[in-house]
Amino acid sequence: MSRRDFIKIGAKGLLAGVAFSSVPFLLQGLVKNSSRAIAADGGGLERHNWGFICDNEKCIGCGRCVVACKKENKVPWEPEFNRTWVERYIITEDEKIYVDSPNAGRDGFQDFPPKLDVPESEVWKSFFVPKLCNQCHRPPCVTVCPVGATYQTHDGVVLIDQDHCIGCRYCIQACPYGARFFLPELGVVDKCTWCYHRINRGLIPACVEVCPVGARIFGDLNDPAGTLKTTLAQKRFYVLKPELGTEPKVSYIGFEKGVY
Fold first, then answer.
1. Domains in the chain, ordered, with CATH?
2. 8 Å CB contact between 81 and 183
3. What per-residue confidence (pLDDT) applies to 45?
4. Whose CB among 30, 107, 152, 198 lies 3.0–4.6 Å from 140's, allowing a Cys bridge?
5. What integer pLDDT is reported at residue 255 of this predicted model?
6. pLDDT value at position 5?
């Protein structure tokens, strides 16, 4: 029996009494405890503090970001495996919300007209929303991992050590943004890393590089003159589910309500 198999059996036995369905209700406690992981990695952020902007006023739902991510990070082509994806939101005059994401937005939306039960004249607003890991400052996924396979780097990016991941999937349940997925062939969890292997070499994430309209902006929150920081200073922005206290580092421009 390998060390990994031994840890996997032991961890599953230890956690067997905790139901997956209970994890979302523990988020408040997990968020508070996750500060320990940050402190253990050097006491806080150092030279860089990476951040991300998704501009919904610019996004055209072309899907190039999804394709580029899959190619760059060797993510399976099937639409259920995604480090990033695009959703289409349609909000009616009476505030009904319709959301779809055919093939995770990989193939664009032109060939997938929305199926609505209301006439187009009653549509108040429609827009595309890119989704990806929020790289939370207080990530609950880090706290629930029983073997420390999920961790936070000194510059604030949450990564997975797949050599140590035991596939228990507690982190998937703990993530309130649906940003993690399980790879059955490998028996491990995967997620967006903001192309950490690229940004460590001075490159931008693949999805940012291929966006034809500049709807994705990546940069250093510690750089006051950088595009990311200046854009946040000039635009009104929002984060997803701020009430959970995870302090997500993906900021959205172009919507005020209805996105979750």
1. 3-10+19-47+138-189 (3.30.70.20), 50-134+196-253 (3.30.70.20)
2. yes
3. 43
4. 30
5. 81
6. 52
Task: Compute the distance between CA of residue 225 and CA of residue 159 in angstroms, rounded to an integer.
Answer: 27
> What are the structure tokens assigned to 182, written together?
């399980």
**70-104: b (≥16 Cβ within 10 Å) or e:** bebbebeeeeebbbbbbbbbbbbeeeeebeebbbb
Torsion sign over Cα 49, 55, 56, 62: negative
CB burial readout 111-125, b (16+ within 10 A) else e: eeeeeeeeeeeebee
52 SS3 class: strand
What predicted TM-score, i.e. pTM, was given to this entire model? 0.83
Chunked mean pLDDT (size 10), the chain, 260 residues: 48 45 46 38 63 97 99 98 97 92 96 85 93 98 98 97 98 98 98 98 98 98 96 96 97 86
pLDDT attached to residue 39: 32
User: What is the model's pLDDT at position 136?
Assistant: 98
Among 50, 74, 80, 58, which residue's Cα sits nearest to residue 211?
58
Transcribe 107-163 into DSSP letters: T-STTS----SS-GGGEEEEEEEEEE----SS-HHHHH-TTS-EEE-TTS-EEE-TT
What are the structure tokens assigned to 33, written together?
A: 């405890």
CA distance 250 to 188: 25
Q: Quote the CA–CA distance of 165 and 163 in Å, as a whole number.
A: 6
Distance of CA 229 to CAs 191, 193, 235, Å? 25, 20, 10
